[in-house]
Design a protein that fits this description.
Order of helices and strands: EHEEHEH
Shape: globular
Number of strands: 4
Strand content: 35-45%
Largest sheet: 4 strands, antiparallel
Structural class: alpha+beta
Radius of gyration: 15 Å
Oligomer: single chain
Strand order of the largest sheet: 2-3-1-4
Length: about 120
């Protein structure tokens, strides 16, 4: 199996659907015996230029390990989802688990470091 970095941008009107979309994509990867090594929700960010008269988008980054069939299914899902404005899939030489520069810079919430109740793991119960 190969390692990939996936970034997709969701229409801002569909931001509340992002957690369900992430779970669906994680399910696809798990069904294909793959793994998600890093998952970051960067939230709504300003676009450099408008896409279909939209000026903001909700960004999500995933570092995954999967086979070609799962990757094709994931890409097909991105292409035919009205909520996904753009997506980018890049082949990586190895699994990346460290926080991305965006996470270090913005201190956004990382979905992989959350506890079972949805709180960040470093906050005591």
């Amino acid at each position: 199996m190969r390692h990939y970095e996936v970034v997709f941008m969701v229409h801002p009107d569909q931001s509340e659907q992002v957690p369900a979309m992430i779970e669906r994509y994680r399910g696809m990867i798990a069904a294909g015996n793959g793994a998600v090594h890093r998952l970051e929700d960067w939230g709504r960010r300003q676009l450099c230029f408008p896409i279909a008269k939209v000026h903001k988008a909700h960004y999500v980054l995933m570092n995954i390990e999967c086979d070609n069939e799962t990757l094709a299914e994931l890409e097909h899902s991105f292409k035919f989802s009205d909520a996904v404005l753009r997506h980018l899939i890049v082949k990586m030489p190895k699994a990346v688990t460290s926080p991305s520069p965006m996470m270090k810079e913005e201190k956004s919430k990382s979905l992989m470091e959350r506890g079972a109740e949805g709180r960040p793991a470093d906050i005591p119960a």
